[in-house]
Amino acid sequence: MAQQVHTTRRGLLFGTAAVSAGALLTACTSNDAGNSKGGSAEQAPLADDKAGKHVTIGFAGPQADHGWLNAINVNARDRAKKYKDVSLEITEGSNDTATQIGQVETLINKKVDVLVILPADGKALTQVGLKAMRAGIPVVNLDRIFNTPQAYRCWIGGDNYGMGLNAGHYIGEKLKGKQNARVVELAGLDSLELTKQRTKGFDDALQNYPNIKKVARQAAEFTVESGQSKMAALLQANKHFDALWNHDDDQGVGALRAIEQVGRDDFFMVGGAGALSAFQAIKADSGVLKATVLYPPTMAASAIDLARALGQGKGIGGMAEFEIPSSVTLYSAVVDKENVDRYMPTGFN
């Protein structure tokens, strides 16, 4: 997940979403939407239904060793199949930077029209992004950002600061009438900048609610196992709190196991990312999980839209500019029982 610029916003926090990048691309690219499938953007609108110049898109992502990363691959493949004028050259994905650099260089040598790259490490892959751009192949940098904008034509990704901000405001509004409210935070890997951004957004939001105090924070590792063990430690150390924000729905599976093992139901939980299991639990409304804040993997589908538009020399429908923008930051919508049905098709396993 990305390291990107903070975007502060106050409106549309509670169960409503801003338009996705995929919707913004209406009228830039083709064809009919198909049946919905978990983890995919299949219900999102495609661009204009006029087939254009054929575009070969090279897609290079990291190894799909996490539910969100697998959903990235699903979204890219499914979106490309929707377009009769798009061919997708997709690599096997690797968390080894040298391997991924080699894969991107192979795509450059194949002379693809456009590259979509979600780098395992943005800094490490900056040079190969520059190489592609210098070879005349525009790059759509997906989520984890390169060190320089010279290495990409367009960046599209999620809003980590916005995740924390919207989670904090959602919890704040739910607890604003409660005196001496207490919240805890189950973060992700503290070595990652994105984790720091999510915590910063959360803390900034809570400053608007003087009745709320964050009494504990524990860092996990974006895995089920770490979520379970770290949540167990939080529960043992904190006998009473009113709300929990968990940064990641994958580690949230483990957190919920720990909560169920001790039989706690005296607080509510807000997750992060948008896993199908989280959506199902929110819809069932039978446990502590009441909402999750999106970090939408549908960004990969939108990256394919952007790549196609670049290859065909088109802009974005609904905007006056002839060119696509240099960056697109997705909105971190809060999904709760009121709007979960809308987002259910995008939930990833």
Automatic annotation (TrEMBL):
It is found in: Cell envelope. Keywords: Signal. It comes from the Bacteria. One of its GO terms (molecular function) is carbohydrate binding. Residues 57-314 form the Periplasmic binding protein domain. GO terms for cellular component: cell envelope. The keyword Signal applies. Gene3D superfamilies: 3.40.50.2300. Belongs to the bacterial solute-binding protein 2 family. This is Sugar ABC transporter substrate-binding protein. It comes from Streptomyces fodineus. The lineage of its organism: Bacteria, Bacillati, Actinomycetota, Actinomycetes, Kitasatosporales.
